[in-house]
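Worked example 3 (structure in, sequence out).
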């Protein structure tokens, strides 16, 4: 059953074999896998249950409904926007459905006892069937321009894969799908959990993992009022096993707030954001970037996964809904309006960085997180390189003008060399950075001296505690993470059941 905590008589008490916290790809999959292996599972979700019928594709209504902080979450210095989902399904409700495996060389470099490359391959094979992953069948004009730019420059690129079926290419994936075409955690994993007798409790935000004598005893959670986002009362879950899957920001914040022991000192201190930069090109021809599947082509010319690689930039078209685009365009007032009047002719390319910077996540009070992430000099250099590469691609595809954000903003025309014209460095806040793939904040490792969690997701220092989300990656993975997080969910859910 799916219950809304706001309708339970309070204070409420619930018992289960396993309490999973967070219903994104990691948590929903771990919950389903553990229930399929015979455990009685309750899945807590801080946000609401939002159904397809409630998704109206309007940015101003869907961002507050589907995202933490209405889409306005940032790092503490406000230099990076960090978009994360809130609601049953987590970020899988509003993500862009790209599915890319972690490159084998990255997986091999981790040397994890319980996750050797062959285990990853088997998990991917299974999850790709479960989510009906396939090659994206069409390119809209926006993606064709990226392909055209790659071909003109002789840069490497190719088509992408996704987990959609019955997609009508409406183009508004980032604000939820009104056509039920996403094979996401809500559509695929939650029904698997429910069919095995598991329960989901919405508006139920874990405040603390409870523990005594070196063992987990349960979870204390707040009932959240959707209108005010403030607590209405408490729910206590009694459970000998707890699996935290509250995202790469929510999970370390919850572990720290719960005073879970961690002699390795790593919890929350190894966050990667996979941050992105973007610039816009103005084309004579209409681009109509909002029409069609938003991202279907990638440029991989400057994406090298070697540990010492010079270039680490993954380039794709960035979704171009009006509010999102307006925040990326430089200028104010009439100048800004003039660029926006070219909306139908604008293309936006984005470079995401396979980052090495380690950010820090801590709790902010009982209900929020604080994210401190300041890109290192080498990462800032590569972000600028990625931005210049995006500008070069836009010009090669035929853009008349390219707007590169920054202080000062740079406007480029045909014949300009973006690599020569962009500054050598930038200060925090000078260039908009956006992160949609936070990860690696509770990095798994099999040595309890250097990691808090092992490569089954089992906590080294508190019996009965597990982690099953994007926090677990030992490093940045440099590609979109959802499919790998679903795979980790299967892996951890089964390990919990096998551990007895
Ligand atoms: C705009 C956007 C586009 C994206 N596009 C892609 C893409 O195309 N391909 C791809 O691979 N990835 C994409 N991603 C990223 C991908 O969706 C995430 O990496 C993935 O959903 C993370 O899974 P998770 O289970 O770790 O966490 P989440 O999906 O973030 O789920 C965590 C859940 O836990 C809940 N929660 C948090 N704290 C608590 C608490 N204390 N108690 C109870 N519940 C709690 C949250 O509300 C949330 O529902 C995108 C992300 C965004 C924002
Ligand atoms: S493009 Fe496809 S998956 Fe995205 S919102 Fe439209 S119908 Fe749904």
């Amino acid at each position: 059953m799916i219950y809304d905590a706001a309708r339970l008589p309070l204070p409420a008490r619930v018992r289960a074999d396993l309490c999973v916290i967070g219903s994104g790809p990691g948590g929903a999959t771990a919950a389903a896998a553990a229930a399929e292996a015979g455990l009685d599972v309750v899945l807590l979700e801080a946000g609401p249950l939002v159904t397809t019928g409630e998704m109206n594709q309007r940015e101003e209504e869907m961002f507050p409904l589907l995202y933490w902080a209405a889409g306005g979450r940032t790092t503490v210095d406000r230099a990076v926007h960090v978009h994360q989902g809130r609601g049953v399904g987590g970020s899988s409700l509003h993500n862009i459905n790209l599915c890319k495996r972690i490159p084998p060389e990255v997986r091999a470099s981790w040397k994890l006892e319980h996750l050797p490359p062959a285990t990853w391959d088997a998990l991917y094979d299974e999850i790709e069937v479960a989510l009906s992953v396939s090659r994206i069948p069409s390119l809209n004009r926006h993606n064709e321009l990226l392909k055209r730019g790659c071909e003109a420059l002789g840069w490497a690129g190719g088509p992408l894969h996704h987990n959609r079926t019955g997609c009508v290419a409406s183009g508004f994936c980032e604000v939820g799908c009104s056509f039920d075409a996403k094979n996401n955690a809500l559509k695929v994993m939650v029904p698997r959990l429910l069919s095995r007798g598991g329960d989901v409790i919405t508006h139920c935000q874990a405040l603390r993992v409870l523990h005594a004598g070196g063992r987990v005893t349960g979870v204390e959670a707040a009932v959240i009022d959707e209108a005010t986002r403030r607590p209405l009362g408490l729910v206590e879950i009694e459970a000998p096993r707890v699996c935290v899957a509250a995202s790469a920001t929510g999970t370390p914040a919850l572990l720290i707030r719960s005073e879970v022991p961690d002699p390795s000192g790593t919890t929350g201190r190894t966050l990667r954001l996979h941050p992105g930069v973007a610039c816009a090109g103005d084309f004579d021809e209409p681009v109509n970037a909002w029409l069609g599947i938003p991202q279907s082509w990638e440029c991989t010319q400057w994406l090298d996964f070697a540990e010492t690689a010079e270039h680490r930039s993954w380039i794709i078209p960035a979704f171009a809904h009006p509010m999102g685009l307006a925040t990326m365009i430089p200028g104010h007032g009439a100048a800004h309006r003039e660029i926006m009047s070219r909306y139908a002719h604008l293309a936006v390319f984005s470079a995401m960085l396979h980052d090495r910077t380690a950010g820090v996540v801590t709790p902010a009070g009982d209900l929020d997180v604080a994210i401190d992430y300041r890109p290192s000099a080498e990462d800032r250099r590569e972000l600028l390189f990625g931005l210049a590469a995006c500008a070069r691609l836009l010009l090669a595809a035929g853009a008349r003008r390219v707007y590169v954000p920054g202080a000062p903003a740079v406007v480029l025309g045909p014949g300009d060399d973006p690599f020569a014209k962009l500054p050598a460095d930038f200060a925090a806040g000078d260039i908009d950075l956006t992160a949609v793939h936070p990860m690696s904040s509770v990095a798994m490792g099999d040595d309890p001296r250097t990691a808090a969690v092992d490569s089954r997701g089992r906590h080294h220092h508190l019996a009965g505690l597990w982690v099953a989300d994007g926090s677990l990656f030992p490093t940045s993975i440099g590609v979109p993470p959802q499919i790998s997080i679903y795979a980790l969910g299967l892996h951890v859910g089964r390990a919990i059941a096998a551990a007895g």
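Notes: The mean pLDDT is 95. Residues 315 and 351 are 4 Å apart (CA to CA).
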